[in-house]
């Protein structure tokens, strides 16, 4: 009987979280799964079928789009990591006090404006009549207007920019807990910059690296605005396919199947990534 | 100072280091013969870590020279110096096993895998933890971590091993045990140890020679006995071992035996220290609690200095029990070591005791300026 009090309190505390989880995550996904598995046989008549899933594997456009999205997202994740690591190192180890808060703020500032406006900022810079093009013409490096939008590089730049904060924060947190004397000890025992980075710093920061990578990968994979606005109509992003099915073709069943596939396949990629780097999910989330 | 047959492993000459306007290490000169245990003893903040970090190469000295086996170390980075350091919190790598921790330095030197395995097993045996190589760091107890941190450095056979208060985090019992163990390990490996600590008992028990450091300077370098018996400065007299510090004025005499008046009492003392003292100057007189003879009741103690006093407090601490007493006719407060005899077993507050000590067991110094701090 005595355990009832705390147990009740636990449920009351967990209640809102569970409610949120069930209403906004589990329920829509169950519904999506059900929708994706039905086939419209006639007006208002449905039967169960896996035909929409088959379509994904038989129609090259679909799975090629997915593969392209996945590869681009992995690349974006990798680039974000490579750029964010020195930044996080600088924030965690080199600066103290005010400068540190200011740098953190600088990482946060882009998120004060909406995603749409942020992406539009890149368009202003990169388009044919944009700032960069204008500068190149003014300085004589280019003879005519240069179009830098609507290609993969533009998409990559946008994705990395949008993901920066989600990589920097977990990295700063783990690097912060890395005792400086560990690095000094490694130097003292004969290590050099490269071996200390490889054998001490990166293994220590692994939980932060992995959680940052998972978040950035998932965000890039599920991003819609950046690839569409910076990559143009033919950016071939998988979320665009889902959008097309739901909104343009009004084919809710196919869209739902893509949604489920996106969830399953991205989880599979994350699982594979964890296996390949020999990390366990529970350890990362500690 | 050392016999010429023993080669000098580490030599420092007029080392200085300032942080801004704060002189952390100032004009430090010393040399350590091969295979000896050298301690640097001083209160926290006196610059010990700064000095050690200069030796290890993490800080560049402002002035002066460091020589290991006669080779100057100025400009040599930490990973190229033939010395290793045991850090204050040990700094064992948490992501590696015990064996990988110890093998790290050997791997960096490009030693072959078989050779590494053999030497790691060998050093683990020598520090008394055979077969612990596969364990994870968090599985070890405090004392075991200590030994692994030592093994990680000793496996590289450094010319000099630096230790920065490595016993600070251990509890008292383990610390006592590790003191003895550390000394034994130093003797079996024959490595030169430079050990820094703020705990005078650690320094006294383990060291061949001790340097007492204060405000970035070495006050005195000598064997533990020399520091205890013949301190050269009032700071050393107060810091090494327990001591009563009595403020007074020199009444007469100038060399050897002198008379000091303190709290209306005339004390026979022996002048020590380098600063000259003249009659009328303020002086500090140090008497160790264990140098004072005690008898119950009023007696003639047959000593140069005698005092009848009232017991204020009995501080029972087994073999190290002491009493705080206060002079009956003056306000002289003294700490006196209580002999472990039946006679004193029922000594209580308010009892009368007779005290006596010889002038040869006192040290009298010119009083320090206030900013040097009083008796710690
Ligand atoms: N990197 C630094 N910058 C500024 N002051 C420092 C630095 N390191 C140490 N100090 C100062 O130098 C003095 C000596 O410090 P330290 O060598 O750590 O003393 P100890 O190890 O004897 O306790 C202290 O007053 C400390 O505040
Ligand atoms: Mg220190």
Structural features, described:
The complex is a heterodimer of chains A (about 290) and B (about 375). With about 290 residues, chain A is mainly alpha-helical. Chain A has a single domain, classed as MetI-like fold, CATH 1.10.3720.10. Chain A is about 75% helix and about 5% strand. In chain A, helix 5 (about 115-125) packs parallel to helix 10 (about 225-230). Chain A is globular, with a radius of gyration of 23 Å. With about 375 residues, chain B is an alpha+beta fold. Chain B folds into 2 domains: about 10-235, 3-Layer(aba) Sandwich (Rossmann fold), CATH 3.40.50; about 245-370, Nucleic acid-binding proteins (OB fold (Dihydrolipoamide Acetyltransferase, E2P), Beta Barrel). Chain B is about 20% helix and about 35% strand. Chain B contains 8 helices and 20 strands. Classes of the chains: A mainly alpha (about 290), B alpha+beta (about 375). The interface of A and B includes residues 189, 191 and 199 of A.
Shape of chain A: globular
Q: Kindly name the structural category of chain B.
A: alpha+beta
Bound molecules: adenosine-5'-diphosphate, magnesium ion
* Main beta-sheet annotation of chain A: 2 strands, antiparallel
Can you list the strand order of the major beta sheet of chain B? Answer: 6-7-8-3-9-10
Radius of gyration of chain A: 23 Å
> Sheet with the most strands of chain B?
6 strands, mixed
Low-pLDDT ranges of chain A: none
**In CATH, what is the class of chain A?**
Mainly Alpha
- CATH-defined fold name of the largest domain in chain B: Rossmann fold
Give the integer mean of the pLDDT values of chain A.
88
Report the count of strand segments of chain A: 2
Structural class of chain A: mainly alpha
CATH topology of chain A: MetI-like fold
Number of helical segments of chain A? 13
Q: What is the CATH class designation of the largest domain in chain B? A: Alpha Beta
The helix content of chain A, as a percent range, equals over 70%
Largest interface: A-B, 18 and 22 residues
- Strand order in space, largest sheet of chain A: 1-2
């Amino acid at each position: 009987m005595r355990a009832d009090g705390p147990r009740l309190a636990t449920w009351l505390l967990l209640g809102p979280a569970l409610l949120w989880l069930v209403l906004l995550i589990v329920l829509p996904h169950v519904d999506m799964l059900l929708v994706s598995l039905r086939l419209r046989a006639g007006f208002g008549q449905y039967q169960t079928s896996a035909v929409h899933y088959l379509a994904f594997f038989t129609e090259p456009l679909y799975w090629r789009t997915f593969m392209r999205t996945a590869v681009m997202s992995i690349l974006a994740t990798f680039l974000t990591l490579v750029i964010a690591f020195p930044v996080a190192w600088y924030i965690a180890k080199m600066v103290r006090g005010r400068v540190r808060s200011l740098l953190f703020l600088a990482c946060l500032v882009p998120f004060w404006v909406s995603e749409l406006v942020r992406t539009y900022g890149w368009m202003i810079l990169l388009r044919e009549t944009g700032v960069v093009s204008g500068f190149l013409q003014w300085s004589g490096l280019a003879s005519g207007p240069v179009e830098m939008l609507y290609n993969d590089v533009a998409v990559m730049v946008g994705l990395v920019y949008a993901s920066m904060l989600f990589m920097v924060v977990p990295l700063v947190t783990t690097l912060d807990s890395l005792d400086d004397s560990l690095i000094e000890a490694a130097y003292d025992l004969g290590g050099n910059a490269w071996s200390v980075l490889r054998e001490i710093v990166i293994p220590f920061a692994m939980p932060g690296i992995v959680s940052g990578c998972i978040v950035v990968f998932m965000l890039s994979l599920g991003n819609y605005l950046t690839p569409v606005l910076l990559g143009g109509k033919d950016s071939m992003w998988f979320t665009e396919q889902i959008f097309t099915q739901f909104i343009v073709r009004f084919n809710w069943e196919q869209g739902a199947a893509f949604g489920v596939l996106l969830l399953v396949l991205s989880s599979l990629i994350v699982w594979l990534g964890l296996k390949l780097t020999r990390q366990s999910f529970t350890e990362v989330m500690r | 100072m050392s016999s010429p047959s023993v080669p000098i492993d580490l030599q420092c000459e007029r080392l200085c280091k300032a942080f801004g306007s704060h002189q952390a290490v100032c004009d430090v000169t010393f040399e350590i013969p091969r295979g000896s245990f050298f301690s640097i003893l001083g209160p926290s903040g006196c610059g010990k870590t700064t000095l050690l970090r200069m030796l290890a190469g993490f800080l560049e000295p402002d002035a002066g020279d460091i020589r290991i086996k006669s080779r100057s170390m100025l400009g040599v980075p930490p990973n190229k110096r033939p010395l290793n350091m045991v850090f204050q919190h040990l700094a064992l790598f948490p992501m590696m096993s015990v064996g990988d921790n110890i093998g790290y330095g050997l791997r960096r030197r490009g030693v072959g895998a078989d050779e590494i395995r053999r030497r790691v097993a060998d050093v683990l045996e020598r520090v008394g933890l055979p077969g612990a190589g596969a364990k994870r760091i968090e599985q070890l107890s405090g004392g075991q971590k200590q030994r692994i941190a030592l093994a990680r450095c000793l496996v590289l056979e450094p010319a000099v091993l630096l230790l920065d208060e490595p016993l600070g985090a251990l509890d008292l019992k383990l610390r006592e045990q590790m003191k003895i163990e550390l000394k034994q390990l130093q003797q079996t490996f024959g490595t030169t140890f430079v050990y820094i600590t703020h705990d005078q008992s650690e320094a006294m028990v383990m060291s061949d020679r001790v340097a007492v450091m204060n405000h970035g300077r070495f006050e005195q370098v000598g064997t533990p006995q020399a520091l205890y018996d013949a301190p050269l400065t009032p700071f050393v007299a107060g810091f090494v071992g327990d001591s009563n510090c009595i403020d007074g004025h020199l009444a007469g005499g100038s060399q050897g035996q002198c008379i000091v008046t303190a709290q209306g009492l005339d004390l026979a003392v022996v002048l020590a220290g380098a600063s000259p003292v003249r009659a009328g100057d303020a002086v500090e007189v140090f008497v160790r609690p264990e140098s004072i003879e005690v008898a119950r009741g009023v007696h003639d103690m047959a000593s140069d200095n005698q005092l009848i006093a009232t017991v204020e407090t009995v501080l029972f601490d087994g073999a190290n029990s002491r009493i705080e007493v206060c002079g009956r006719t003056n306000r002289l407060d003294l700490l006196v070591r209580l002999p472990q005899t039946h006679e004193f077993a029922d000594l209580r507050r308010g009892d009368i005791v007779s005290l006596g000590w010889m002038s040869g067991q006192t040290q009298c110094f010119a009083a320090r300026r206030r900013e040097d701090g009083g008796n710690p």
